[in-house]
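Attaching the record inline, Q. Sequence:
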Amino acid sequence: MNSAAEWNDLIELLNLKAEQFNQPDFIENDPICIPHLFKTKEDIEIAGFFSATLAWGNRKTIIVNSKKLMELMDNAPSDFIRNHRTADRKRFRNFKHRTFNGEDCAFFLENLQRIYIHHGGPEKIFREGLEKGNIKESLIHFREIFLGKKKIHRAKKHISNPADNSAAKRLCMYLRWMVRKDHKGCDFGLWKKISPAMLYLPLDVHTGTISRKLGLLKRKQNDWQAVEEVTGILRKMDPKDPVKYDFALFGMGVSGELDF
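Structure, as predicted:
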């Protein structure tokens, strides 16, 4: 920013846009609508994990395919994950969303079951990772535990690794859903022992483009270095809840604002 006045104007704009887009009517057209179909903590966690995993490409297609996955789990994801047997995974063999196929699905089902039965669920794993430092370390730790002994499986590409400089957009978005809590009702705030202050922006083509147009991000690639750069700026705007601005940046990107 060239001046304090411009900086204050930018904060005012982003606060306004965050307020505008962080509304209940945001839910129905976003993958977050899938976990909103459920009421219990584990159902929400599992539905959120799968819909976040599929969250690339056309949003309508993401929602349709995420609903198909929930139907294949009898619309009871927690019960299915905990109690299904190997043979039950056969029903997923024809599932496909872009490059995420039935084989990937079976791998995810098997490893989520292991995580809930032997590791206390994803929240516990992410919290363990935080003890190593920050959200980056938490994401790396979760990936290691999730992949388990099958680190060469084709499904590993669907769990991003910030250690390889990946932006890890889908995992950062999943954490936003599970950790943030406000009065708007979009994010769930289920994981109360992780502070929203620690979260990183889910960086994608929309949030990246708008961030650069607003002067929040100079780095050209949408990678982990860019995530750290832009989140660092957002933390100066709101140290306690920096990723509330995901609503502003994503909403402005999808709606075509700042098209110049």
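DSSP finds eleven helices and two strands in the chain. The radius of gyration is 18 Å.

More tomorrow.
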